[in-house]
Amino acid sequence: MTIPAELSTLAATLHVTVRACKRARIPLEDLRQAALAADLSFIGSPDARERLLAAIRELEAAGAITLPRGANGWEAAPRPALPRWVARPAAAEPARVLEPAVAWHADLSWVPAFLAADRPSAAERSLLRAVNGFLGAGGSNVVVPLRERSLQLTGDEKMLDTVSRGRLFTPGRLSLEFLSAARVSPPLIRQEVGTGPVLLLVENYATYHSLTATLPADGEAGTIIYSAGNTLGTVLTAIADRGERPEALAYFGDLDVRGLEIAAAGARLAAELGLPPLNPAEWLYRLLLDHGRPAPASTYPGPAKARAAVTWLPAVLRAPVLEVLIAGNRLAQEAVGQELLTRVDVLSVTAATSSADLCPTDPHT
What we know:
This protein has helices at residues 9-20, 28-38, 48-61, 111-117, 122-136, 146-154, 159-163, 205-214, 232-241, 257-272, 282-291, 303-309, 315-326, 338-341, and strands spanning 25-27, 74-75, 82-83, 85-87, 144-145, 181-182, 190-192, 198-202, 221-226, 248-252, 278-280, 295-296, 329-330. It is α/β, with parallel strands linked by helices. The protein has three domains: 9-87; 106-182; 190-358, 3-Layer(aba) Sandwich (Rossmann fold). The strands form five sheets. The chain has a five-stranded mixed β-sheet with strand order 7-9-8-10-11. A two-stranded antiparallel sheet has the order 1-4. Strands 2-3 form a two-stranded antiparallel ribbon. Helix 1 crosses helix 2, helix 1 packs across helix 3 (48-61) and helix 2 runs parallel beside helix 5.
C-alpha cells in the first residue's frame, strides 16, 4: 500500500507510523508521538486534538485504517473524542517503511547513513526528527535541565535520561551541549566516615544517622549516603552525573519484597551507569536477620515475587529472608540501631566472615 497522494502532511506521517507498526492495533499514543515529532507546534497547542483527529479521519476515509466502533474504544475527554487505537484493515500487512524524505539540518548530516545502516527504533527516529525541527527553528541559547528539553522534544520528560547515554549520543552525533541541555541532580545527603573503599547507600534516614555515628574510621565503609527510600535510582544517577567512581558500592535497606526489588533495580541501573556493582551490605543484613522484629507487611505480592526478590541477596541469606517474606512479614532496618551498633565490631559492611562477627561484644546482651 502506498501513501495516497491526497493525504495531508500530518496524515501521511501517521500513515507511515501505522504501516511500520507490527501490531494490528496501533495505540493512540504512537500516533500522538509521531505527530509531535513531525510538528513541534503540537506542544501546548489548543487545537492539537482537533488536528490529530482530522488526520486520523483522513486515513479512515482513504481506507488506510479502521476506528473503534464502541464507546469504550474512544477517549471521551477532553473534547474532541479521540480513538484509543486505530487498526489496519485485514488486508494491510505491516511493511518495511522507508524514512520519509527529510531535509536534515547541516549538523545532522550523519543521520541518513545512521537510518540506513543502524536499524534505529521508532523512538530514535522520532527523536531525530524532533531534534531536526528544534535546530531548524533556531535551537536555543538557554541551557535548560535535560528533562525540560526532553519534554519539549519528545513529550516525555524522562525519555532522554536513558537515550542520552546510548548510541545517539556518541562522538560526532548528538550531545547535551548540542541540545542546550544539562543534567541536574538533587543534592546528596552524605557523610564521610573513613577512608574505606565502600560507598554505602542506606534506605532510611534513622539508620543512616546511626551508621554515620558508629562506623569506625578504619572500617570498610568510607562514605555513607542516604538513598531516601525508593529514590535509589535518582541517587545513583546523581552519583554518576557528578563523575564519582567509587571503588565499591553497597546497599542496606528494609527486608521486604518492595525494598529488595528497589535494590535489584538499583543494581541494574548501576551497571547501566558504569558504576561498580551494587552489592548487598551482607553484614548489616545478617544483623537485621538476627535482631529484627518481624511485623506484618502492608502488602504481600505472593510467593513468586518473594522468591524473585531474594535473588539479589547473597545465597547464604536467601532462605532465611524468604522464610520471613513468605510468612507475610517484613524486617525494618531500624532494628540495626545505634545501641546495637555500638556493641558490635563493624569493620566490614559487605561480608561477615564468621558467626562471631555477628555477636555483640557485651556478654549480657
